[in-house]
Write a structure and sequence with these properties.
CATH architecture: Alpha-Beta Complex
Helix content: 25-40%
Number of strands: 7
Strand order of the largest sheet: 2-1-3-4-5-6-7
Strand content: 25-35%
Shape: globular
Radius of gyration: 17 Å
Oligomer: single chain
CATH class: Alpha Beta
Number of domains: 1
């Protein structure tokens, strides 16, 4: 079975990709599985730049087909913030709860019609086919609205699911089970877009 490296240190993100990759004949590996503990720089100005930086960084080190993504929360009433800085905007010491609660604090008093937001992500997939290096970049977003308070349980690695409501469901994204959240997520859309490449990797 051919192998695919999911280039993330976020265990929750890795678990979600493992769910989404079940339909492909691929052995999904983590950075730990391949013995890589180096951290890729994330100094790009956009999600796409960071995804490509990370994919290239880990592809060069592992020599395996590599999928990396970058993403975060975009809140319209905050001018698209925290955006590309989603995981670092309060500093390196801020935990998931602090990130979620800061969104709620900054949105205090914003009327319902202006609370629109989305979880956006960009994925970069690098692999070798017939001796040539290939790279595919895809993008997706999950739309919702910001709640007026945090969901009590915050899943480690996914802080903004605790503040994003799904209007058509009348619930927080954080309320969904692992399988359902993965199926509805922006990563599901990206994997769907990458399906042809993933099948080629599996058959190589």
């Amino acid at each position: 079975m051919n192998r695919l490296l999911i280039a993330t240190t976020n265990s929750a993100k890795l678990a979600e990709y493992r769910v989404l990759m079940r339909t492909f004949q691929l052995e999904v590996l983590s950075l730990r599985d391949v013995g890589i503990d180096a951290e890729a720089p994330e100094d790009g100005a956009t999600f796409a730049a960071n995804a490509r930086i990370k994919a290239q960084f880990y592809f060069d080190r592992a020599g395996l087909a590599t999928l990396a993504d970058d993403g975060g929360l975009e809140v319209d009433a905050l001018g698209g913030a925290p955006g590309v800085h989603s995981h670092r905007w309060l500093g390196a010491d801020a935990d998931d709860r602090a990130l979620a609660e800061e969104i709620v604090r900054r949105m205090r008093g914003v009327e319902p019609g202006r609370r629109t937001a989305r979880l956006r992500a960009v994925a970069a997939l690098i692999f070798v086919e017939n001796g040539a290096r290939r790279e595919t970049v895809v993008e997706a977003a999950f739309e919702g609205v910001i709640a007026d308070r945090c969901y009590p349980q915050i899943q480690r690695g996914f802080p903004y699911r605790a503040v994003l409501m799904i209007p058509r469901r009348g619930c927080y994204l954080a309320e969904l089970g692992e399988e359902e959240a993965a199926i509805l997520s922006q990563r599901r859309s990206m994997v769907d877009q990458l399906a042809d490449d993933l099948k080629r990797i599996a058959k190589a």
